[in-house]
Amino acid sequence: MLTVYKYAFAVQDTVEIEMPTDARIIHVDHQEGVSAFVVGTGWSAYGALVLWAVVDTDEEPETRILHVRGTGHPFTGEEGEHLGSVLIERGRLVWHVFEHALATA
């Protein structure tokens, strides 16, 4: 069945999210009242970023790798496809979200 799912994730350099194979990410943003836990450090100081994706719930899960970079932060150029930029704290902080391209066999 096709539907839209929401996935919350913390602001950290690299994020792994499990979602059905071939899910299509349609939007990235910040949502008030949504928080994210960072393993090893606790709750994210910046709350959570959120992405929405069109998913087929009948598909097997796969792990997707995202990279989050702040404006002015180091950038390698290998982060992958830009999914969107998210403004929080009235635009004082801007996070740029990229999806790491997975190698195909």
Q: Could you characterize the architecture of this molecule?
A:
It contains no helices and nine strands. The chain is an all-beta fold and 105 residues long. It has one domain. The strands form three sheets. A four-stranded antiparallel sheet has the order 2-7-9-8, with no helix packed on it. Strands 1-6-3 form a three-stranded antiparallel sheet, with no helix packed on it. A two-stranded antiparallel ribbon has the order 4-5. The chain is globular and about 40 Å long.
Task: Figure out the total of helices.
Answer: 0
The secondary-structure class comes to mainly beta
Number of strands: 9
The gross shape turns out to be: globular
Can you summarize the main beta sheet? 4 strands, antiparallel
- From the N-terminal CA to the C-terminal CA, the straight-line distance is 27 Å
Low-confidence stretches: none
As a whole number of angstroms, the C-alpha radius of gyration is 14 Å
Order of helices and strands: EEEEEEEEE
The spatial strand order of the largest sheet comes to 2-7-9-8
Q: How many independent structural domains?
A: 1
> How confident overall, as mean pLDDT?
87
Helix content: under 10%
Strand content: over 45%
